[in-house]
Amino acid sequence: MSIAIIGGTGIYDPKIFKEIGRRVIKTPYGAPEIAVGELRGNEILFLPRHGKNHALPPHKVNYRANIFALKMLKAERIISTNSVGAINKKLAPGNIVIPHDFIDFAKGRDSTFYDKEAVHIDVSEPYCPELRKALATAGEKIAGKVFSSAVYACTQGPRFETPAEIRMLHKLGCDIVGMTGVPEATLAREAEICYAAICTVTNFAAGIAKKKLTAAEVKNIVRKNQENLKKILVEVINNIPEERECGCRNALKGARM
Description:
Shape: globular
Number of domains: 1
Distance between the termini: 32 Å
Number of strands: 10
Oligomer: single chain
CATH class: Alpha Beta
């Protein structure tokens, strides 16, 4: 299997994933650098979403170049790691969440590979059910409690949301909020790559917590959860079926007008 991991630089450990080398992949949209490794006979591709030194804010991430490059490297699965804020009061910082659906509030992002062709992919299940199940099983084994379903709200960033925006998202049924989950998920679907996300709750969303939210606090929670996430990413390899039986692999079938 060829499995890609998209996330922060702290998640990737070249010792665990036996790094073989790094490649700059030239695509029609840009040229991201991808680390290539191996784990239990599987090829592991690691792509730092925000580029070197976490230099790119969420609204400037080159999502199309990232997903296109992974497609060029023949990735069949993508596991995304995300930091999120908790809207659902059952969640708390440190919890691990695997979303099953999303609402997209991002603005002006290049969200499709098909600007010159009418292609309408189905997103009845925005996240691959096979990958979600594998992540939930691995997460429960390593971390104990895992929230295996949630609605992810993707906002534009880079600022945090206002209390009024969080109240709106809560009324719409959103459980968590982040800035990077879309259009990553839909571009992967267009590329017919299985995609699922494992999210770490780093903070209560604005208006739920009664204190000012700082980027330093978010970074601290992320750092604390990195070791667990690494263990889950290693464990999940055992749970992913070798052959894909989900609909992701045929996402373009019947999608063209």
